[in-house]
Design brief:
The complex is a heterotrimer of chains A (711), B (320) and C (334). Chain A is α+β, with helices and mostly antiparallel strands and 711 residues long. Chain A is 48% helix and 14% strand. In chain A, strand 13 and strand 14 form a beta hairpin. Chain A is elongated and about 115 Å long. In chain B, strand 6 and strand 7 form a beta hairpin. In chain B, the strands form four sheets. Chain B has a five-stranded parallel sheet with strand order 2-5-8-1-9. In chain B, strands 3-4 form a two-stranded antiparallel sheet. In chain B, strands 6-7 form a two-stranded antiparallel sheet. The longest helix of chain B has 17 residues. The two termini of chain B are 25 Å apart. In chain C, a hairpin with a 4-residue loop joins strand 14 and strand 15. In chain C, helix 2 packs antiparallel against helix 3 and helix 4 packs antiparallel against helix 5. Chain C is an alpha+beta fold and 334 residues long. The chains are: A alpha+beta (711), B alpha/beta (320), C alpha+beta (334). At the A-C interface, helix 5, helix 6 and helix 9 of A face helix 2, helix 3, strand 5, strand 6 and strand 7 of C.
Chain lengths: 711, 320, 334
């Protein structure tokens, strides 16, 4: 491999990883990202001598300044500083990569790449960044080593200098040389990534997590908007196929195998007032009920009998805690907090009307919480003032109450009424996301009598209002309905597309009970992925979750528990192995790796040593190449035996030198050397059998064990 | 065209006998004998440089005898004239015209003892004959017999009253050899031996015609292009080496190539290998280069020159 | 016990570490990232910090490996002279069996002089050696003591320069400079012919022969060789035994030695050396004697080495001090 080429490829890779980690932050627009990537590809594809052209060089000095002034102009005219700066950094790198011509430029490329990575760290941090980081780990040592060597070469060998053999030592010659770095060199430098990774991981886990939070200004807002606590039939409906993950639910006591989909009905918030077009809340008062690491009872303190459901909530607005049906209490799992700030935790939980729980946080990050679900039916609900759950909008079409009366008939029980209406709605109406009723002045009326098609909000609104006309208190609940199983994270993934709306009905003696009038088959997302795509998506999402939880969200509590576990595994070695990998699996995978490595090595060596037998009979040049390859194998064996041949010593002289003749295999080495000389310079064609025999003998030489007597 | 020795590692029987015959006269010095034979098979001349009394003359005589050639010996002194070597036209009073009286140079082997004692003019007369294989006397050109070798000896320790050979003339010798003292065992045997003339007992293995045939065969030894590049790299390296003020000439390179071919033949190979070039580089090149002097008024020793050439060669990568 | 001792010795092997410019930048960035990580508690910054720190650790380990198992040998020229460049060869051999050493810089350390001479080796393959040479022009005569080498490497990332010193002594005597001198005509009125080495003169020895021309001294006709009457051979007679040239070097330092005295002394030495060499080259026998009583002799056969060596090491002697103290660095003033 040519030194210069390897070096160029490696530094290009480093630069590309830096730019990619910038792009992965998502600070830039899509078109800017595309432009940057195209520019990067062009810069990498540009021929090597491009930077030597004086015009190009001048251009490469002027262009960044020009761009800088443009960016300053854009900043002054109101663009965000961050975006402007990141764009400038990326463009600077692209210009440098395209026009570099010496080692000083290479160094700039490397420093820029490092700064890009740091910027990516600060601004981004998703899984894409993680991949860039890993790539950086692999490429950085090789790129740094090669750049360093190139710099040394340029610094130490001036143009026109000559070495002792009289050959000119100039930089281009060394850059073209294949002797400086070989495959082994590259392999070793790239595999340095392993110790670096281990060391990095060690430092990462052990470095005490103390956040001083000096000079840090927390910014509010900026969450993703996904789930909505607004139910507005007048506007266009919710997007049901948004695949963005809203939350993940880990359920206890799952059957094996777990079902692919479950209906969870995670309750977010409830609305009590319907004005004929949209739902709203009458009571907007919220009261702080607790903070971190506190169990917040919804109904009561959790009991040992209760099931614990763990939910990872992504950050989005509104910051509502979603609870499964029958939840009695929640507890927020603590996360990275500076010990200095533990007492004044910034995360607070507030309870609003209609059993809504909200959290208030200074950071734009999701929360992780446990919810305790009671197995028993509730009994302790006390009836309060129900009048607001019976309010009807003004100007409600009378045929709606007529329809309700018709459906309900004579049944006196509220439960019975609710069941009937739920059944009728499910059976007689068609689910349609693009309901034509959405834009009409009386959407509910239009849905029930004209279009007879609609999405979940129509169903839930219809049921709630119809029950109210029948004198049953109801409220409209929004939240997430379904979840799909992710086999990698062993949790149910709930996406923004799973947002749903249903009804809670007050049953005396029971309390609020859940009814979902939407046809269940229709409520499932329409475009569920299957097969390999689903597999890959699951894997990616699970990795991303782990990255977020274990790397981005790693904190002093995890650190402590990890240390505890470590101590535990030391104390009880017979127990469960640490890190959850059984020793047999570990052993087998190590053996497998060794075997694969050995096979690959063998294959490579074979292929290098032997051309195909047809070639052997062709030209003298090919025969010479084969003979040379055979001798190179012998040279390798001699090196292994501690008698390597120096470059300037001819093979035969080497075989007869005193170093070799002192070796127990001297005779064999001499024989093989003579065979080689015959084949190489005597142009005697070796057939396949002879070559195999030669290689076999070489192998024996290599494997020969020197007896201690010699030492 | 395959030669008779193709891919045989046993040398021709006649070469073995030749070697044995010469080694019989000069025991314990197989390398020197081989180098001398290499030069002779390549049609080159030999410069033997050593102190007196180590067998220079014996070697020359044994070589001549084994090859079945006639040997003439000239002791060079400061009053030796070119005509003493080449011959002279003498006015024959009986027939009234000049007749050429041939000098000792008209032989197959000329042993020029202590060549550095003669004046430069005499030396150059000899060297011209060595180069062209002919002699110009009184306007006529007379070819020398074929084959024609000069084995010159000189004593490197002599300073007084000597005329060291300049580089241009040293260049005409294919190899420069040093005999050195014989191994102790051999020396002991020589001391115990009654003073027999060992060179006289050497059998004639070849005659002039078969020697020429052998020389032809040496010229047919195959040379791989990679080895030619190797040789050129060595020459180039001597020219650019900082330790050498004067590198090897093209003629030196041609000599090295010829010598290497004949060494291959001597070793029983029909093809050249890198070892041939590598091993002969010092004896063929060392007397043709000039060391860069580090101080005024100092004459580099032979060892330094050989060491420098050796170092240069050791650093040229051998082609595989 | 001995194994522990060896390990201890290995760990305490004298090493020096210096930050390069790039290293300072790198450490600065690392420091910044670390500060940011501790301050913000951003885990990704901790991750990055881990990577940067492990690069530093890997760099230390690799440079250590690169420096280990290296032996350095110096080859000094046989002779060196003031104001005339000579080459010093440095051979570095790598005794490691599998691992090459990269980017090795060897500085040759001389006693009491700045280490300004260095050789660079890009790669030294396992169990092999590499030779490089540096050119040096000595500025003063005397004994140059080479004490050892400083072997340094910035491998692998160019962030740190790690160096260690290896002992390796060598001594080189620097001869004084020699200027070309035109000597006064010889007493024998010698003619110089074609670079002729031996002077011709009126001695009894025959120096050579040449064809005769008309009107030459018939006494020089060499009858033994004159076979053809029309072409006489003339005999050239060698010069009479060349005379002993005696040169004196005044080494006594005057008691109120002026500031320029050392310089004057050096000039004097150089002058004597030039004349002596010119005489020897002409074939004269030369004796140099100092006022302190030392003498040295040389002639053509012995070469000029004894003379130059003597002149290289000669020291001025204080008028009242004992003459000639051996082995002291010489000619400090030059």
């Amino acid at each position: 491999m040519k030194f210069g080429l390897v070096h160029r490829v490696m530094t290009n890779a480093l630069a590309a990883l830096g730019v990619l980690s910038l792009v992965a932050t998502g600070e830039l627009g899509r078109w800017v990202n595309v432009a940057i990537l195209v520019g990067l590809a062009c810069a990498v594809a540009v021929p090597e001598r491009f930077g030597d052209n004086p015009w190009v060089r001048r251009g490469s000095q002027i262009a960044p300044l020009l761009f800088l002034s443009i960016q300053i102009g854009r900043w002054v005219s109101g663009r965000p500083l961050l975006e402007v700066a990141v764009e400038f950094a990326a463009v600077l790198q692209i210009v440098r990569v395209a026009t570099r011509s010496d080692s000083a430029h290479d160094q700039q490329v490397i420093v820029l790449a490092l700064l890009h990575l740091i910027a990516g760290t600060v601004l981004g941090g998703g899984l894409a960044y993680g991949v860039c980081f890993l790539g950086f780990l692999v490429v950085a040592p090789a790129a740094l080593v090669l750049s360093h060597l190139r710099r040394e070469v340029e610094g130490n060998y001036r143009q026109g200098a000559r070495d002792r053999t009289g050959l000119p030592v100039d930089v281009p010659r060394i850059l073209k040389s294949r002797r400086v770095v070989g495959k082994t060199f590259l392999l070793v430098t790239c595999s340095l990534a392993l110790p670096i990774l281990l060391f990095t991981a060690g430092l990462f886990t052990l470095f005490p997590r103390v956040g001083f939070h000096w000079l840090i200004v927390h910014q509010e807002g900026g969450r993703r908007v996904g789930f909505s606590d607004l139910v507005d039939l007048g506007s266009v409906g919710l997007l049901r196929d948004d695949p963005q993950i809203a939350l993940r639910v880990t359920l206890p006591d799952l059957p094996e195998p777990p079902p692919d989909r479950v209906a969870l009905h995670l309750r977010g918030t409830a609305l009590d007032f319907y004005d004929g077009r949209a739902w709203a809340r009458t009571n907007v008062h919220r009261a702080a009920v607790g903070q971190l690491q506190q169990i917040i009872p919804i109904e009561r303190r959790p009991e040992p009998d209760d099931q614990r459901v763990t939910i990872d909530l992504e950050a989005f607005d509104p910051p509502v805690l979603f609870t499964p049906p029958g939840a009695v209490a929640v507890e927020i799992v603590p996360r990275t907090e500076s010990p200095f700030l533990l007492g004044v935790s910034r995360l607070r939980i507030e309870r609003g009307a209609e059993g809504e729980l909200r959290y208030r946080d200074s950071e734009e990050r999701g929360v992780r919480y446990h919810a305790w679900v009671s197995r028993r039916a509730r009994t302790s609900a006390a009836r309060e003032d129900m009048s607001r759950y019976l309010q009807l909008p003004q100007g409600l079409s009378p045929r709606i109450s007529a329809l309700a009366a018709e459906w309900v008939g004579a049944s006196p029980q509220p439960l019975e009424k609710a069941r009937i209406i739920e059944r009728r709605l499910r059976a007689e109406y068609r689910y349609d996301r693009a309901s034509p009723s959405a834009g009409t002045p009386h959407p509910l009326d239009h849905f029930l009598f004209e279009s007879r098609r609609g999405h979940c909000e129509f169903y839930s609104t219809a049921m709630a209002i119809m029950l109210r006309t029948a004198g049953v208190p109801t409220r409209n609940v929004t939240g997430f309905a379904g979840g799909s199983w992710n086999r990698f994270s062993r949790a149910y993934t709930v996406r923004q597309g799973d947002a749903h709306s249903w009804v809670e009905v007050w049953i005396d003696g029971v309390g609020w009970q859940l009814f979902d009038p939407t046809p269940p088959a229709e409520a499932a997302p329409q475009s569920e992925l299957r097969g390999l795509t689903a597999f890959l998506r699951d894997m990616l999402e699970a990795t991303s979750q782990r990255w977020d939880r274990n790397v981005v969200g790693y904190d002093i509590h995890q650190q402590m528990s990890l240390l505890e576990r470590l101590r535990g595994s030391f104390r009880a070695p017979a127990g469960r192995p640490a890190f959850g990998v059984p020793p047999s699996t570990l052993f087998l995978s190590v053996v497998g790796l060794v075997v694969v490595w050995w096979l690959v090595r063998r294959l490579l060596r074979r292929r290098r040593a032997l051309a195909s037998p047809e070639e052997a009979r062709s030209t003298p040049a090919v025969r010479a190449r084969i003979a040379t390859a055979l001798y190179e194998a012998l040279e390798g064996a001699m090196s292994a035996q501690g008698v390597p041949r120096a470059q300037g010593v001819p093979p035969l002289a080497h075989a007869r030198s005193s170093d070799v003749t002192a070796h127990p295999l001297a005779r064999e080495i001499l024989d093989l050397t003579e065979l080689y000389l015959d084949a190489r310079f005597g142009h005697r064609a070796l057939d396949a059998a002879e070559r195999d025999a030669f290689l076999l003998r070489v192998k024996r030489v290599r494997a020969h064990k020197i007896r201690p007597a010699r030492a | 065209m395959q030669s008779a020795v193709a891919s045989v590692h046993e040398p021709l029987p006649v070469i073995g006998r030749l070697r044995a015959a010469v080694e019989g006269a000069l025991e314990g010095k197989p390398e020197v004998v081989e180098l001398a034979l290499v030069a002779l098979l390549a049609g080159g001349h030999v410069l033997l440089e050593d102190v007196p009394g180590v067998g220079k003359t014996t070697l020359a005589r044994a070589l001549a005898k084994a090859m079945g050639c006639d040997l003439k010996r000239v002791q060079f002194t400061s009053d030796l004239l070119p005509s003493d070597i080449l011959g002279v036209s003498v006015f024959d009073q009986r027939i009234g015209e000049f007749t050429l009286r041939q000098g000792p140079i008209f032989s197959n082997v000329l042993l020029a003892d202590e060549i550095n004692r003669a004046s430069p003019r005499t030396q150059s007369a000899l060297l011209e004959a060595m180069n062209d294989g002919q002699v110009s006397l009184d306007g006529q050109t007379i070819p020398l017999p074929h084959p024609f070798f000069v084995i010159a000896t000189q004593n490197p320790e002599d300073f007084a009253g000597t005329f060291p050979l300049p580089e241009s003339q040293l260049d005409r010798f294919m190899v420069r050899l040093k005999l050195g003292y014989p191994p102790p065992a051999v020396e002991l045997r020589l001391l115990l031996d009654r003073g027999t003339d060992r060179a006289a007992d050497v059998p004639s293995v070849l005659d002039a015609a078969s020697l020429v045939a052998l020389q032809r065969q040496a010229e047919r030894v195959a040379v791989d292009p990679a080895l030619a590049h190797y040789l050129q790299a060595i020459l180039q390296a001597t020219r650019s080496c900082t330790a050498l003020a004067l590198g090897a000439s093209t003629r030196a390179g041609m000599s090295l190539a010829r010598a290497a071919r004949s060494r291959a033949l001597l070793r029983g190979r029909a093809f050249l290998i890198a070892d041939d070039i590598h091993d002969l580089a010092v004896p063929v090149l060392a007397h043709r280069v000039r060391l860069a002097a580090h101080a005024e008024g100092y004459m580099p020793s032979r060892e330094e020159a050989e060491g420098a050439v050796h170092d240069v060669v050791a650093r040229v990568p051998v082609p595989l | 016990m001995s194994a522990w001792g060896r390990i201890g010795a290995r760990l305490t092997m004298p090493r020096r570490l210096r930050l390069t410019r790039e290293g300072k930048l790198f450490v600065g960035i690392t420091f910044g990232v670390g500060l940011a990580a501790i301050n913000t508690g951003n885990n990704l910054l901790y991750l990055l910090l881990g990577m940067l720190l492990s690069l530093i650790v890997i760099s230390g380990v690799m440079s250590e490996i690169s420096l280990r198992g290296l032996t350095v040998v110096r080859r000094l020229p046989a002779r060196a002279q003031v104001a005339r460049a000579h080459l010093v060869e440095i051979e570095v051999s790598n005794a490691k069996r599998r691992i090459p050493s990269y980017a090795i810089e060897v500085e040759d350390l001389r006693e009491g002089q700045p280490a300004d001479k260095r050789c660079f080796f890009l790669k030294i393959s396992p169990s092999s050696a590499q030779v490089a040479a540096y050119r040096r022009t000595p500025q003063r005569r005397g004994r140059d003591l080479h004490t050892g080498f400083r072997v340094a490497t910035r491998f692998p990332f160019g962030l740190f320069e790690k160096s260690r010193e290896i002992r390796g002594e060598g001594e080189l005597v620097i001869y004084p400079a020699v200027d070309p001198v035109r000597l006064p005509a010889d007493r024998g009125g010698s003619r110089r012919l074609g670079g002729g080495a031996v002077g011709r003169g009126a001695g009894d020895e025959i120096a050579g022969v040449r064809p005769g021309r008309a009107d030459e001294d018939p006494r020089d006709i060499y009858w033994r060789k004159s076979t053809v009457p029309s072409q006489l051979v003339m005999r050239e007679r060698a010069r009479e035994l060349s005379p002993d040239v005696s040169l004196t070097l005044d080494v006594a330092e005057p008691s109120p030695a002026g500031d320029d005295w050392p310089a004057r002394f050096e000039r004097h030495v150089r002058d004597v050396a030039s004349r002596a060499v010119a005489h020897v080259r002409r074939g004269d026998r030369v004796t140099i004697s100092t006022t302190a009583g030392q003498r040295v002799r040389a002639e053509r056969a012995s070469g000029t080495d004894p003379l130059l060596r003597f002149l290289a090491l000669v020291e001025p002697s204080k008028a009242d001090a004992a003459p000639a103290r051996p082995r002291r660095p010489l000619a400090r003033g030059a």
